[in-house]
UniProtKB/TrEMBL annotation:
Family matches, as Gene3D superfamilies: 1.20.140.150
Similarity remark: Belongs to the PMP-22/EMP/MP20 family.
Residues annotated as transmembrane: 38-57, 69-90, 110-129
The keyword Nucleus appears for this protein: no
PANTHER family per UniProt: EPITHELIAL MEMBRANE PROTEIN-RELATED (PTHR10671), PERIPHERAL MYELIN PROTEIN 22 (PTHR10671:SF7)
Subcellular location, record wording: Cell membrane; Membrane
Protein name: Peripheral myelin protein 22
The keyword Cell cycle is annotated on this UniProt entry: yes
One annotated Gene Ontology cellular component of this protein: plasma membrane
Length: 133
């Protein structure tokens, strides 16, 4: 989620590239409570998204004509809220982990903030969606 100066950090490990450019040395991420909460909420968002997909297929075959996909939408909205809370916690607390200002946010961090409104939007679309014949 953070990159800079031959260093890349995600939720699970910290990797540094040596001067040769080919060798990476990775350490496990720190055991901070806030980082573990970010990891847990990101895993929860994946679980809610998979449940949402599974429930969509189940409801596709069991709903009556004109029925709405409420349960699918609720799980998708929960997935979006988990992504939002994980990214928000990381945004507020990452300075405790990396004090150097030479680092910047990586693509995975930006992707998390993009995934949040998209998951909420898809949840709302599921709620509005009606089953047709």
């Amino acid at each position: 989620w953070i990159v800079g100066n031959g260093h890349a950090t995600d939720l699970w490990q910290n990797c540094s590239t040596y001067s040769s450019g080919n060798v990476q040395h990775c350490f496990s991420s720190s055991a901070n409570e806030w980082l573990q909460s970010v990891q847990a909420t990101m895993i929860l968002s994946i679980i809610f998204s998979v449940l949402s997909l599974f429930l969509f297929f189940c409801q596709l075959f069991t709903l009556t004509k004109g029925g709405r996909f409420y349960l699918t939408g609720v799980f998708q909205v929960l997935a979006g809220l988990c992504v939002m809370s994980a990214a928000a916690i990381y945004t507020v607390r990452h300075y405790e982990w990396h004090l150097n200002s030479d680092y910047s946010y990586g693509f995975a961090y930006i992707l998390a903030w993009v995934a949040f409104p998209l998951a909420l939007l898809s949840g709302v679309i599921y709620v509005i969606l009606r089953k047709r014949e």
